[in-house]
Amino acid sequence: MSRKLRLFFADMAYRRCGKTTQEVIDSDVGRYLKWNQKAKELSAIRRLNLCLTNNVEFRNVFYFRLQGHGRMVNMCRRILKPAEAVEINGDIGPGLYISHRHAVVFPQKAGKNLRVGPGVVIGKNRGGRPEIGDNVYIASNSTVIGGISIGNNVIIGAGSVVTKDVPSDSIYAGNPARFIRSMKDSPELYDEIM
């Protein structure tokens, strides 16, 4: 099957989903192509197609954004298969970036620019799910569970277990996660990974 035909249903679903959903998807695409200088010159649909063909985990994000958009999405799923070990649910803002084929992302709510590393679990514990602010990076193999709050501009280090609130502008790591330093002390780190 040709590349053009493989992308036909995705393109149609994108065009029919409405302007608000398109803007959210465009923001997600922007996160995946942040480091690709050539892609910045492409049209929105070509940027989307680039992500769909090159990033299997992006397909999961794309299908999550198109929930409830019917048959076109179902056809697309059959042709452009999503990563089997990526699960997404919850109220998640634009700019979602899942960097690997293994993640469970079930926050109650998450703001814009959530970046999730491989093997991350965000989910329910004792009846509650996390609420996550804007510009948060949760590094590989971390677990963030329960009815906790994670502020804005936060980095959770690799392998961390987070079961308590994390304030804005901070870096936390460890099991259990503890304060490492303020983001204000490391602006270059934030720019590099977000």
Commentary on this structure:
It is a single chain. The protein has 194 residues and is α/β, with parallel strands linked by helices. It has 2 domains: 3-79, no CATH class; 85-193, UDP N-Acetylglucosamine Acyltransferase, domain 1. The protein contains 6 helices and 15 strands. The strands form 3 sheets. A 6-stranded mixed sheet has the order 3-6-9-12-14-15. The chain has a 5-stranded parallel sheet with strand order 1-4-7-10-13, with helices on one face. The protein is globular, with a radius of gyration of 17 Å. It starts with a helix and ends with a helix.
Briefly say what this structure is.
By secondary structure, this protein is of the alpha/beta class. It has helices spanning 3-16, 19-32, 44-54, 56-65, 71-79, 187-193, and strands spanning 85-88, 91-92, 97-98, 102-105, 109-110, 114-116, 120-123, 131-132, 136-138, 143-145, 149-150, 154-156, 161-162, 170-173, 178-182. It is globular, with a radius of gyration of 17 Å.
